[in-house]
Specification:
Layout: H1 21-43, H2 53-60, H3 67-84, H4 96-106, H5 109-121, E1 127-134, E2 137-144, E3 155-161, H6 168-171, H7 175-186, H8 189-200
Antiparallel strand pairs: 1-2, 1-3
The structure holds fe (iii) ion.
């Protein structure tokens, strides 16, 4: 079961004017594709070849000699997840059980946004900001490079790519502007709510 590049869940220009077609041509068509291609080369003829992608991530994370496999395969998962975390005319506020949990675990939605942006802002260099479910509670985490909270036993329900390749064409060096745009205009809260419902069982 080879790793595959999923189609974007929207047209390639659908996130404009926030995230351009050019960004997605590179980010999905070149970067994500390269992780798929390299990941498949690295897992071919290994025990990972027929394994579920989440299992490859969790097992290769434990073995420093398999950093190449981990980095490429986790980046395949992270990007497939990230595309679904956005939608045209996204942003706004979540509702229902997810909003209740955000209010309970972060005080209120404004404070959640502040803490989530802070995770992205303080991730030095490349990485990801995450909203996860950990033992039934919502938590915000950040990971460097290809890191994924699955390896810590946490269930990701939202992610924001803060690698420069995610924003440099549209926002240049202004990571904070990209992050507020992500939260205010792009987040697909329906997808996050579905993930939350599944994660709390
Ligand atoms: Fe990326």
């Amino acid at each position: 079961m080879a790793l595959e590049l999923p189609n974007l869940p929207y047209e390639i220009d659908a996130l404009e004017p926030h995230i351009s077609k050019e960004t997605l041509q590179f980010h999905h068509g070149k970067h994500h594709q390269a992780y798929v291609t390299n990941g498949n080369k690295l897992i071919a003829d290994t025990k990972y070849n027929d394994m579920a992608i989440e299992d490859i991530i969790c097992q290769s994370a434990k073995n420093a000699a398999e950093a190449g496999i981990f980095n490429n395969v986790a980046q395949v998962w992270n990007h497939s997840f990230y595309w679904n975390c956005m939608k045209p005319n996204g942003g706004g506020t979540p509702n229902g059980a997810l909003l209740d949990a955000i209010n309970k675990d972060f005080g209120d939605f404004e404070n959640f946004k502040k803490e989530f942006s802070n995770a992205g802002a303080t991730q030095f260099g490349s990485g990801w900001a995450w909203l996860v479910v950990d033992n039934g509670k919502l938590k915000i985490t950040k990971t460097p490079n290809a890191g994924n909270p699955l390896t810590e036993g946490q269930t990701p329900i939202l992610t924001m790519d803060v690698w420069e390749h995610a924003y440099y064409i549209d926002f240049r060096n202004r990571r904070p502007d990209y992050m507020s745009c992500f939260l205010d205009k792009l987040v697909n809260w329906d997808f996050v709510a579905e993930n939350y419902t599944k994660a709390i069982g």
